[in-house]
Amino acid sequence: MEKLKLTILILFTCSMYCFSQATYTISGLVSEANGNGLPFANVLLLQSSDSTLVKGIVTLNNGSYTLDNINQGEYLIMVSMVGFQSAYSKPFNLNTAYKVEPLVLIEGEALDEVEVVAKKQLYEQKIDRMVINVSSSIIATGSSALEVLERSPGVIVDRQNNAISLVGKNGVVVMINGKESYMPASSVVQMLQGMSSDNIESIELITTPPANFDAEGNAGFINIVLKTLTDVGLNGSYSFSFGVGNGSVTSDNISFNYRKNKINIFGNYSFFRQTQGQLFEFERRFTNEDGIPVNVATVSDRDPNLNYHNIRSGLDYQLSDKSVIGLLLWASDSKWTMDATNMSRELLNESPNSFIELLNKERNQHKHFGSNINFKHSFKEDAYISIDLDYLKYEIENPTNYTNSFFDENNNFLRKEFTKSDKYNPINIAVGKADYSSQISDKIKLGIGLKAAFNNFDNDVVVGTVEGQNFIEDPELTNISKLEERILAGYSSIDYTINDIISLQLGLRYEHTDSELNSDKQGKVVDRAFGEFFPTAYLSYKVNDSLNFNGSYSRRITRPTFNDMAPFVIFFDPGTFFSGNASIQPAISNSFKFDVNYRSMILSAQYTIEDGTISRFQSSFDEENERLVFAAANIDRTKIFSLTLGIPITVTHWWKMQNNFIFSNTKFSNTVDGSLSNFEKNTININCTQSFTMAKNLTSEISVNYNSPSLNSFIGTSTLKSIYGINLGIQKKFGDKWGTLGFKVNDLMDSMKWEVTNSVPEQNLNTNSTFDFMNRTFMLTYSRNFGNKKLKSARERDTGAEEEKKRLN
């Protein structure tokens, strides 16, 4: 810790000795074909190496423009205007005042050119987050949001346990357009699996959130920004995808937006279907109480079917020049069914002892409805208040039937058992939130806010066996429980621009949580009330337009989910099951981060210490009953150091690369039955994306992802073996009238398999598991925009109400 603090201090101190480079002026003229100057044309100054936007301006009435205070470097100019073809200057080296040759815009649509040059970088590093511009990726087309996340740097998705981690840390909170989903983890994963990437503009990975974000989530936030359509009139888009692999995949999406005068109406519907087979393998070895080695191996051949419907619709109404009110409604239905054949074999001292065939029929259905009312009033140009009221309702059903056939060591039939489990989990959430922001002076911006969230969870679990016509409940596993939780929070933050070089942001958030869990058999299981302060701090030092340093500190909390605390049971085989833990405690983390951004290159270091880390599925062995149990548990302490390097490379004008490298060192310290164990692992994550412009309107992309062996908190002290995957795609644009056609191959080598090992001899625990969720998939996608594309109004887009609309959509 002290070494890290000293390193950050030295880097900041050294940066203070840097001095700004000399700056120069760039000027030029934009005209029509007849030679007349063209007013209000867009002028963009781009880095010639990677087309990164440096500065933008519009031309004056005579078509002239001047860009001041530009650092030395290699640039090019792009000019555009609706109804005209775009034009570009030759690349030039700026080391003195420079005058660009006159650029002439020719009438006629050239939207394809604009899309290619103005295309955002796939990855962008900002002061508090990394932005993945999904709409800039060919491979992302036709995928689900979950698949895009799985290919994102530092993100690991555990589909078996419905968990998402970021840079080795569990406890990620998922938001949609800056609003928390408040979903249980299992619902979040199913939602992302059913959400079409064609409706996503970008994904933001926020590892050190500011004070106006909830303190929940030690790994930070993943914010999914949906596409917005802000043209006047009616416009929209639609896309259809179909793929085949070990089963079929369908992803369809349609969005529309209608804006006129004071009203903006928008909506989206998406459908996702996946029927790809899965194969799980599980092996555990232990020594029984007689000292005999036992080996239990289970193979699960799963035939799942996922159907996901999602609809969002809303309306914004501008009450006045300073006030806007919005209504947003959304609903989803995710139905996952599965037929599985599980074969389990037990060996005693390497000799066959018994065989079990488990036929499993399962339905996991998540229904969700949500609503939001937002009101925003601007007191003046730089001060506003925003009020949000949310109501969310979930219904989760998970009935499962097991037919277990038992055989002896010679495979002779012995008996058959019928086991049933059912879980019904309704959830109601009400949230009220108010934020006030004011620019007190040219250098100081103040923000304050209040929030209250009221959560009500029911959990009805029934487990038992069927004997003849009778269902006999298992009293140890059957339970009805209820959780009531109240979270009250308040925050204040201040942004202080010390000068053109240094800016500071400080925040303090206080949250008070009151949780009560009652069980019909155990009475009051949890009665927990606690309050905590959560400070945040950011410091930014800008050396020049190309180089800047950012430092931050953030304190976070991870609260147990209802599934973590509530009793539930999922059987994998008669000796292996998943369960809850009512005694689980929240975890507190402190995180330090330092970033260096040079042009479009990224270097980021982060160090996190967490006490009481929640391992969602920590394995333990019940020697008395010879059962392996996966349940939520607290790990004493976790320390994670990560180093991220992002390097974009322009090989030629038709070949660009984005390379991301993440090194992380993870240390776990945990005490079990009075015995202290330490675990440590160094991990490397590599993400490389190559983009090619093969011909006009014809592009392709190749993406390679690699994760070396790693420790991860959601699987506790287990080790995840290395994972790699290759994806490729090609896309042809036929213009606005005919749309875009794309073809891609996901998991080209069919290599995306989860292999998890756990070896703790002192706990008589040695397991090895393989989960194959992914399959090589060939997918064809067609997409097209519709509506009026020429009725944009710059004046409307610049109003405060329009910014609110973008935020709500």
Automatic annotation (TrEMBL):
Compartments, record wording: Cell outer membrane
Alphabetical keyword list: Cell outer membrane, Membrane, Receptor, Signal
The Outer membrane protein beta-barrel domain, residue ranges: 378-782
Transmembrane segment boundaries: none
Chief location category: membrane
Signal peptide: 1-22
Keyword Membrane found: yes
Protein name per Swiss-Prot or TrEMBL: TonB-dependent receptor
